[in-house]
Amino acid sequence: MEGYILDWLNLLGRWVHMITGIAWIGASFYFIWLDNHLEPVKDPADDEKGVSGELWALHGGGIYHAQKYKLAPNKLPEHLHWFKWEAYTTWITGMFMMAIIYWYGADLYLIDPSVADLSKPVAILIGIGTIVIGWLAYDFMCKSALGNDDKKLAIALFVFVAVVAFVLTQIFSGRGAFMHYGAMLGTIMVGNVFFAIMPGQRALMACAEAGTPVDPEHGRKAKQRSVHNTYFTLPVLFVMISNHYAMTYGHWLNWLILIGISIAGALIRIYFVQRHFGKNKPVYLGVAAVILLAVSFIMAPKPASKIASTTTDASATSVVEQNMLPIQARAIIKTRCSTCHSATPTQPGFAAAPKGVIYDTEHQINKQAVTIHQQAVVSKAMPLGNMTQMTDEERSILDRWFQSIQE
Ligand code: HEC
User: Fold this and answer.
1) Which among 23, 28, 150, 18 is positioned nearest to 94, based on CA atoms?
2) What is the pLDDT of residues 388-405, one digit of tens each?
3) Residue 266 and residue 234 in contact, taking contact as beta carbons nearer than 8 Å
4) Which single residue of 73, 131, 161, 286 has CA 20 to 30 Å from 122?
5) Ligand 1 pocket residue status of 358, Cβ below 6 Å
6) Best mutation site among 339, 340, 397 for ligand 1 pocket (most ligand atoms within 8 Å of CB)
């Protein structure tokens, strides 16, 4: 029952998270696009009103005319839309899922004894610490002298983020490390909205209402933060889908893969932002593609002999041993995998077979040999959190079984 309730909380949390995430990033992409496509106003009356640029657009059967003011109109409108709850709700639901999946379920998803044998409270504390300290360190860097030089700040932030990626993968399961890295970047993005962009906008509104001149520093700082948010977006979105790809987080060089894909994501975003200004710079896409190619090359499955610590030479296994392999493999899968991956899981906390993957019969096992091999031998992402304590010897038997049925 507990597993069933958790599944529902997970489903509802994820559903809202996706919806508000789309609304937030969608609005943010739209406003960046809008800002970068503004044209100088044509009507002198608009110029007198303090309008700095305008844009005409067609959408859903209607024609829209957006105007941006240099600072604010003389008289503030009655209804002024703020965009903030999309960001806050995305963060709140994200943290909710983090708490039920990675913290409550730390022994399944966050702790990997083969990486570091942490206790549950320590793992959770490091997880929360990463997110809090990540924000504080980022905010400190932006406010320090570095903050006056966009380029130096960007380099410092990159180094910081790369170090976090490396350190997390040396502490947590690959999956847990990726997700905490993504949550840290996502928290920085929402922190920017909450602690920098919104206060800047409130200051702007206060000045506009009082009719006093606005300190342009507010605008500059808010702009810097929103530029960072733009370039964090694609890396964060990659992390949010990465848990479907054990080949990324399950690899022994997972930190390098994470950094590589993050850089590629930021470059792709830079390309599109440049394109808004009519500057077509395919070099950004080219470099991103080269990085993704390099990453895919690093991740490519190696021949079996290089993966498993085979104690015996596969070619020397006797015919008897060869014939034993399917029986041994089935026995291993039954004890190490089918506690969860069964029509009736026996693992506490599992109400149904995860991802609908079921290994109850010989037929089901044979049909899924490729993914079994991928998950248990190549990436070692399964058994999840090695809950069922699969040994290296067993992985090597599964490897030999897989090779034998490939022939
Ligand atoms: C403790 C429970 C548990 C055990 C034991 C376990 N798994 Fe899983 N497995 C899961 C969960 C949970 C998921 C879903 C992960 C997710 O949310 O992406 C999963 C997902 C999978 C997937 C689907 C991956 C995807 O992204 O589509 C495969 C394949 C898989 N497991 C294979 C195995 C194999 C092979 C074993 C035995 C070596 C095994 N599992 C042992 C819990 C378990």
Assistant:
1) 18
2) 999 999 999 999 999 988
3) yes
4) 161
5) no
6) 340
